[in-house]
Amino acid sequence: LPARYGAGEKSVWVEYIQLAADYKPAVNLGQGFPDYHAPKHVTKALADIANGDNPLLMQYTRGFGHPRLVQNLSKVYSPLIGKELDAFNEILVTAGAYEALYSAILGHVDNGDEVIVIEPFFDCYDFMIRCAGGIPKFIPLKPKSNKENMTSAEWVLDEKELASLFTKRTKMLILNTPHNPLGKVFTREELEVIADLCKKHDVLCLSDEVYEWMVYEPYKHVRIATLPGMWERTITVGSAGKTFSVTGWKIGWAYCPSNLMRNLQVVHQNCVYTCPTPTQEAVARSFEVELSRIDSPECYFYSLARELLPKRDYLVKTLKENGFNPTIPDGGYFVVADWTKLGDKIDLSSETDKYKDYRFTKKFAKEAGVLAIPPSAFYSEEHKHLGENFARFCFIKKDENLALTEKLLKEWN
Ligand code: PMP
Ligand code: GLN
Q1: Are residues 51 and 31 in the same domain?
Q2: Does 146 score more than 80 pLDDT?
Q3: Coiled-coil regions in this chain (predicted)?
Q4: Which of 26, 141, 152, 190 could be 183's S-S partner, Cβ–Cβ 3.0 to 4.6 Å?
């Protein structure tokens, strides 16, 4: 294996999806995906396309994005960023947000460039940076305390430490808001600190906003591209999988100024070239439905967070009542919970993993029948200990499965 790929260990997703297949836990709160159907109009759009009379929708479409989809993405985002997005030069449709991140990182990071990454981080960032020949520089969000009923807002960056990471070699900073796994929604003030440093040091910002529609009151999603002087240096990433609850469709996108977009296009045109036409057409039609009711509370962009809020509260309560100390997320669909108070109830000696959270989540899946993700996967080697006391649970699940989680945790306790 080329050295830049490290030891080539299985990613946490490969390992835990296999674990779910092998142990068949009664509830899988591991990988983030809904276990119930997307809105009817979304699935119907795909069925209509498959059964419809336009044979060209089964063939290749424009490489940088199906025209009907990029036009709708422009209609959705232009008002949100306060600028008319050029559908054909400032938007790229990708194979999930994954490929948007990949094309942005491979397209902009050169050998020896440094990239600032906020921990915990979506695990593939590290790999992609090293793949590009770049050097990741990590800075952890840290909880202000370990008290009960803490919210994700209390996980913060040390501003001085952040400032100290910027050097002459810094090319890019990767931001993820709303944040996976903590659910932190960065406030305007927090984003201003980041933006000021990016401007001062002439650094690009890659903003992963796949959870943009899952934000709980009183928090508001602020797009860093809308801050003064940031449009020209920001690449923003979104996901149809998250926006419409269809993670298996693997359609994502990036938007940014055309001069920055060119680098993403160069990568995309030579390794993916074009994304599936039927799913792009279906995402385009789904956006048209939502745009037609964008001012109504029925619009899925708002109803999704309303639907998720009681699920979040139920899972937080269940975890709290059963010995965990969860951080209440302000966005996204994961809860990170400290499990250490349960430490003497569970014997981890049969598990051989290096990190405690891997041992805990594996043993817990076998004993309690509930699968969670070990957050140390979201830290660099030198900071993995910061994730070891936690487990990440996904709550975009049917109410009956959240109720089953409660029952299983009570029985296990
Ligand atoms: N970024 C983050 C923070 C994620 O949690 C995920 C997983 N959905 C992705 C990117 C990748 O998204 P997609 O499934 O659209 O590739
Ligand atoms: N984004 C999802 C999560 O964090 C899925 C990631 C994946 O399957 N690679 O769980």
Answers
A1: no
A2: no
A3: none
A4: 152
Note the ipTM here: 0.98
> Both 170 and 313 in a single domain?
no
- Same domain, yes or no, for 282 and 313? no
For ligand 1, residues with CB inside 6 Å are 32, 96-98, 122, 176, 180, 208, 210, 239, 241-242, 247, 252
- Please tell me if the CB atom of residue 31 comes closer than 6 angstroms to any atom of ligand 2: yes
**Domain C-terminal end among 272, 292, 312:** 292
The reply to whether ligand 2 has any atom less than 6 angstroms from the CB of 127 is no
Domain check: are 266 and 360 in the same one? no
Residue ending a domain, among 268, 292, 316, is 292
Using DSSP, state whether 32 is helix, strand or coil. coil
pTM above 0.95, yes or no: yes
Q: Are residues 19 and 56 in the same domain?
A: no
Look at residues 165, 122, 119, 173 and name the one whose alpha carbon lies nearest to residue 141: 119
Peptide bond into 178 cis (omega under 30): yes
Domain holding 100, by residue range, is 41-292
Angle at 95 between CA 93 and CA 97, to 5 degrees: 80
CA of 304 to the centre of ligand 1 (A): 17
Backbone angles phi, psi at 71, to 5 degrees: -65, -40
Asked whether 236 and 94 are in contact (CB, 8 A), the reply is: no
Number of alpha carbons in the 13 Å side-chain half-sphere of residue 215: 20
Given the CA of residue 99, which atom of ligand 1 is nearest to it?
16
* Same domain (yes/no): 179, 232: yes
pLDDT tens-digit readout, 259-297: 999 999 999 999 999 999 999 999 999 999 999 999 999
Other Cβ atoms within 10 Å of 353 Cβ, number: 16
What pLDDT is attached to residue 149? 87
Confidence at 7, pLDDT banded by 50, 70, 90 = confident
> With contact defined as beta carbons under 8 Å apart, do 238 and 209 qualify?
yes
CA atoms in the 13 A half-sphere facing the CB of 266? 11
